[in-house]
Amino acid sequence: MDLEIRAEDPLSFSDSEELDENGFPLASSSGSDKAESTSEPTSCNDDRPHKKLSEFASDFYASGSDCTSLLRIRNEKKNGLLVQKNLLQMWGIAKSEVAETSESRVCTENRKRKWKGKEQGDDFGLNQKKNEKGKKSAHVQSRSCPFYKKIPGTPFTVDAFRYGAIEGCSAYFLTHFHYDHYGGLTKRWCHGPIYCTSITARLLDICLSVNQSYICALEYDKEYEIEGIKVTFIEANHCPGAALIHLRLSDGRTYLHTGDFRASKSMQSHPILLNYHVNVLYLDTTYCNPKYRFPSKEEVIAFVVRTTQKYLQKQPKTLVVVGAYSIGKERVYLEISRSLQVPIYTNASRRRILESFGWSDLSSRLSNSSHSTRLHVLPLSFLRLENLNKYLATLNQRFNAVLAFRPTGWTFSEATGSKLDLIKPTSKGNITIYGVPYSEHSSFNELRDFVKFLRPDKIIPTVNASSIASRDNMQALFNNWLKS
After folding, report:
1. What pLDDT, in 10s, does the model give residues 139-152?
2. Could you tell me if 349 and 383 are in contact, meaning their C-beta atoms sit under 8 angstroms apart?
3. The pTM of the whole model exceeds 0.70
């Protein structure tokens, strides 16, 4: 159950309270706080670092991987002032009262960003935008970027585009092209360079029309130096273009941000993961629960192909449909296409995306005619009995039945486990839908094996950390894995 902060709770604070550059309230200089304040006053014009700034973020990173220790640190501080607004809101401790930033956020004065790559350099100077009358555009109220999206000791943020121009950030990293990670990016983006893989870079261009001068494509498994920090992208085994981000700081600290990923045995033989100890691991914990022990991608694909062939033997005029996101699940329909030796029909927008991957085998199989093939790819959310029945009616009686697959880990059932032949489809008339546990996120066992392989000093879960109970459960699992 989430903790609720009442109006009289000493942890609450005023919206007008001054925040530091991390979005934390400034420490009080009242008499009760003297033991923690500096002996010398700090003026607004003082060029020295402000020693009174909140230590909340640094305390968190120094406190071990236990997320609940964050609460203990908070309660140990006098007056309970060290509270991070957006973190509390994200974790369900307080309701958000900050409005979403408008997509039309304007570029403002003095936002000049520079980045230097190992092999390339450019000046990302941002010119001040003016309206038609030549007047300076007004500031738009923005949300503070939570500290867990900032990489300590660097001017980097990861998947933090919905916060606009972030103070102190000169490099914005994007792990992959799914909306919950790129949200906030539009053709108006002008706050600094975006580092991503080449596939993601092309998607930013063709889908969002982001100004190409801000897009910095990095290759997999190639080390770059950005702002004095060694950066390497590693294949994330998630969707096309997804990357793990490996960072080595000049002081020897090493961070690994997984974005969204599906851990695999091959990652355990990757040279950079073998040779550098990870101090802080930002971990995709989507399925960090013992009940999600779903089978491998290969096992699920084999089941889908086997089931398809069996249905076609019974009813040759069956339309085969695979549900998919705008990107992701490509291997499922590609393997069906290979097995049946038929083209893949998709709409024009999806074809454009798929062709941008540069995968010749996939591109050569795409068709623009819904009547030319029995294999169609439709949006995952469209796969409902009534929708498929209407879709079948549009194909002029070319097919008599529909066999559809919804490939997502959320369809996994503990009762079925790895015995995929026990999966019971949803059927009505001539429409059959199979929910198959094909996931592009790590299963529980894969997460465990990955953590035991890396043995990081600290683990920061990036998914399902919105409740105290969830954080406690994950921490108990982490501790157990690292002990064995």
Report:
1. 445 578 877 789 99
2. no
3. yes
